[in-house]
Please model this.
Amino acid sequence: MWLGESTHTLDGKHRVFIPKRFLAGLDRDRQGRTPVILTRGFEGCLFLFAEPGWESIVAGLETRAFAGPEERKMQRLFFSQANYLTLDGAGRLLVPENLRAAVGMEREIVLVGAIDRVEIWPKAVWAAYCETNAGDFDRLDQVLRGSAADRDPQP
Model:
């Protein structure tokens, strides 16, 4: 489970150090590498998954392709942008150009633990998101408890 947030800078080669508390949630493969899956997320961020978390996402979505055209569209858009990557020996993640461009990522970023994934946000986008949504915190407990009536703000 990943929690917390931290601010980082992409280096000149578009790599970011993954903090030790996030590295602790990642396993090494038989060759000693640390594999991850990085894909476009929602609301302007990227999603970083460990393999077991990714497998859970895949299991939940793989049979839904036959549910209709919108489900197929979501699968195509989500999975076509997924990248199977490995961290380098220093614990750095190389963020591919297509994903940086998709969310407008430049140098300053924020890593946010979101239980089953790490979200990678452009710093300014994360700050704006937090500012815009700060007033919703007390209401959102209804969402966590499953109350659909309270998911959308009232006019």
About this structure: The first helix runs from residue 20 to 23. The mean pLDDT is 88.
